[in-house]
Amino acid sequence: MSAGTSTGPGLVATYRLQLHAGFTFVDAAAIIPYLVDLGISHLYLSPILQATPGSTHGYDQCDPTRVSEELGGADGFRHLSTVARAHGLGIVLDIVPNHMATSETNPWWWELLRSGRAGRAGRYFDVDWEPPQAVLRGRVLAPVLDRSVGAALAGGEFSLVERHGQRVLEYRGQHFPLADPAAVAAGDEVTEDLLDRQHYRLASWRDAADSLNYRRFFAINSLIALREEDPAVFAAMHALPVQMLRQGDVQGLRVDHIDGLRDPRGYLETLRGQVPGAWLLVEKILEPGERLPGDWPVDGTTGYDFINGLQGIFVDPSAEDSMTRFYGDFTGEPVRWDDVLRVGKLEAARRLFLPDVGRLERLLEAVCRENDVEVSRETRIEAISQVAAGLTVYRTYARAGSPLSTEERARIEAALAAAARTDTALPPSLLALAGDALLLARHGEAATEFALRFQQFSGPLMAKGVEDTALYRFNRLVCLNEVGGDPGRFGVPAGEFHAANRERAARHPRAMLASSTHDTKRSGDVRARLSLLSQIPDQWIAAVRRWTAMNEPHRDGAWPDRNAEYLLYQTLVGAWPLTRERILAYVEKAAREASQHTSWSDPDPAYEGALRNFVSGVMGDAGFQADLADFVRPLVEPGRVVSMAQVLLELTSPG
C-alpha distances in angstroms, 337 versus 340, 343, 531, 579? Predict the structure, then answer.
């Protein structure tokens, strides 16, 4: 075993530090004595490789070959590592193999724009070089303009400038390379012909909705996906973290968004081969009843599955019927989680992932053509969307040349059956053909590519359709609305929780456990207090009715909707006391994520204005505030008891 690849100190507990320019390696080193006193064995660091300037999270990385200068650079990290080692602490790094930022500070992105398909970066990123739009063939779309290219040209918003010794194109402070900088001079007029000669096509950010030709992280245009399956990409992305592990500066890795990779198992086998003794964890969201693939050479997940089991045992199932009836009557919203989930996924497919679905559709078209199945493009798109919406897990793990597991076959077959039930107009022949491809029962390059690429699509669709849509719509009891959870299940039996612990002890005894993460919708403490509502459903229902009547004067006609109002009351109870500014920011975010009356891409000023006015009125209403405080007061101490019980279980459960 290479030096420095062991996990170091005994695995006891991690403490996650979110590093940024305001909290650097030096700041982290300064609190190490405090963390040692807490009993922490490992520092769990947010991404530390070079990210976009001003990044507050580090997941928008730009250069994987160097440590972030804003955090303190290589010297700063060496200082942190030295102090940690002196105090007996290990370090776990969060690495991001799936995507990078589309920033001019990213040398690979710059090279992609400058050299296009022929350059090294042309194979590094997952770009569709042969899209249906003729104007994009051999080029990459750069959707960064505030309006159309023609309007920007007419407005004189482009210019040619010298930057770092290079002649470049400038648009509102953003810079882009030129394929042939010697052909123009600084100060020359920017023409449509000049723009058409580049390896990229500038466009409005709205054009990305249906014309983007690169895979992204979820639906974020500024995060372009990598082809990690290419050995050259893997080597470039992992050289520095592997070096840190071998030198003993780092003892573990947390792999971000493992489901975004084309072949997670192959990736992990390569990584494990380079760092055989490292503590290796994956950010993998397991749905209820789903297991981590047994052939992955990892120590476990980062603990979302534990969070949902832990939360569920504190919810009283006897309150399900009364709380469900009241939620439906009060809000008028659907009360079946599965229905809300499916609608959220279908909407996301049609609203956020048209380019991804389009890329899959063209592959399915080739499969249809090879097998004499004639259906329209719209029908193929609908079939892909419906099958993906019916998949009950984030993705399957088909590998070219390898059979699927029995469980994965069953999941795909169930998704096909759900698609057939939901949309009876879908031709059975098309679903059968798509199913054969997804099950790797149909040979040919197009069929295999369809299956492998579908897997990289279904995960982001679940994330955006469920995590960032449905979980903001189904507000029956929001302490259950967590990533990887099932809000349709009103609690988890204690026996099921203990069974999961026994299985973890047997299969992944070094998995990470968590009660809150940087991705949870609510803290463990807020969820603990909200779980108490299931023990007092009659009091809760009476309080909501009372508050609704008290706050009627703050409404603007029918707005806000009752679902938003119901979410507001739960949020206030769970997090009380909190400031007007904080709750205003939260309800705006929640409303835009739900995408029912407003959204991030198309905010509705009238709805959002009514929502802000309502929340401001509620937060300024002395009578309501007093009543709310009276309701919350008896929940504070029991909420603390539940919080401490969660900590106790976290400390004593296997992992």
Answer: 5, 10, 18, 31
